[in-house]
Amino acid sequence: MAFALARALRAGETVHAGWCMMPSPLAAETLARDGFSAVVLDAQHGLWDIAGLVAGIGAVAGGGAAPMVRVPLNALALVSRALDFGAEAVIAPMINSAEDARRFAAVAKFPPAGERSWGPQRAMTLQGKSSAVDYLREANQGTLTFAMIETPMALAQVDSIAETPGIDALFIGPYDLSTALSGGKAQNLQAPEVERAIDTICAAAVKAGKIPGIYCRDAERALAMQKRGFRFITVGNDYGFLREGMAAQMTTLKG
Predict the structure, then answer these.
(1) What is the DSSP string of 194-231?
(2) Domains observed in the chain
(3) Burial (Cβ within 10 Å: 0-12, 13-18, ≥19) of residue 2
(4) In this predicted model, what pLDDT tens digit does every residue of 141-153 receive, in sequence order?
(5) Could you read off the pLDDT of 113-168 as tens digits, one per residue?
(6) Which of 45, 137, 196, 228 is catalytic?
(7) Cis upstream peptide for 112 (omega within 30°)
(8) In the annotation, is 16 catalytic?
(9) Rounded to 5 degrees, what angle do the CA atoms 245, 24, 38 make?
């Protein structure tokens, strides 16, 4: 189904997504085929380059999941490129103000909602659209913008960020948020101030009619966040899955 991720989230469904940092289309495809309905290719802290993103997006789509990209900090030029490559959503880090949100939305949405330049040939192929008009008609609603809230500045302006036209979702980066809220002293994701911030961000998204999203380290945390109202939830990452799987095997081997 065209723009399946947006259709599911706009219908009120909860989506669990995989997170891929290794620059391997095969790893990304495996996450897609083995159960996640969306897979994020992390070009901020992961190792994806442009050629890798093109191949990885195609691999995720071929695996039956919605491809997403997290772009690097201040890499607005990559937002529209990722969408042209076929990403169904883009996550932008460190959105600290309504102006940051406006600039992000502008490069992700076609006129009149934004200023995205035309050129989505690969995206049209992956979405099964042969007509430019058909793609254009659905693209602004069908491709999603996730603004990352991960600093005290963003937390203080979360309502205005959420209300920015063209922003579809708020996405919590809990590691940066916990680091910032502790003054750089800790990464306690369940510290009281972090938990309060998480609820504040979720509430701001819901109030503005936007999608609340969060990165979770494991399935247990993901289920807990789902109960607290989050509807887009990433679960672990490929490095973690590989290390945990190896650790379990080595424990058995060593008796």
Answers:
(1) HHHHHHHHHHHHHHTT-EEEEEESSHHHHHHHHHTT-S
(2) 4-254 (3.20.20.60)
(3) middle
(4) 999 999 999 999 9
(5) 999 999 999 999 999 999 999 999 999 999 999 999 999 999 999 999 999 999 99
(6) 45
(7) yes
(8) no
(9) 80
